[in-house]
Amino acid sequence: AQSVTQPDIHITVSEGASLELRCNYSYGATPYLFWYVQSPGQGLQLLLKYFSGDTLVQGIKGFEAEFKRSQSSFNLRKPSVHWSDAAEYFCAVGAPNSGGYQKVTFGTGTKLQVIP
Amino acid sequence: NAGVTQTPKFQVLKTGQSMTLQCAQDMNHEYMSWYRQDPGMGLRLIHYSVGAGITDQGEVPNGYNVSRSTTEDFPLRLLSAAPSQTSVYFCASSYSARGSYNEQFFGPGTRLTVL
Predict the structure, then answer these.
(1) Which A positions 34-63 lie with beta carbon below 8 A of chain B?
(2) Chain A residue closest to B10 (CA)?
């Protein structure tokens, strides 16, 4: 069974500073990896996803993530944070179950606070 | 497209009451799912469906029932509400549950309180 760990519950960064949110996964093969963002009171929105190929993935809103197989990591980065990026971020891992259907497991989330 | 819609947005129940959370999508998606979100626990899968007439249990199915009579609708039924079911519930859908098409689209959520 797959699992995903987001070690940082809460992160505070200054507006304009760079950001890195950590995500580590556990799965025997190469999984499907996702980052979602949840603004207060809203549902989740996909930022980016990795299935195969180039290990550096570009997403929406200027975010990117890098898949590192050797470290079982899929960290999310942004070079310059904007106040509107304040939200909760979820890493997720997808892998097929015995029926061939994708099972997606979410991390516990990292809440990002942006200060002026 | 309205995407994924959920009703109601808020609900307060008393212990033992039953109710149905509604979820609908207009994207002709094959896969639909229900999650609950609790502080510090992320999203946990309750039930999912890979097509009309096909449902299966997720990680935390106890106390919940689902059915999928149409592609569009996937209601979640609480049989006898308990305080432990106080949570925010999200419905999600994706084009397919196989391969690379499983980006999920989420509804706005239903905040449920059980007294």
Answers:
(1) 34, 36, 41-46, 49, 51
(2) A41
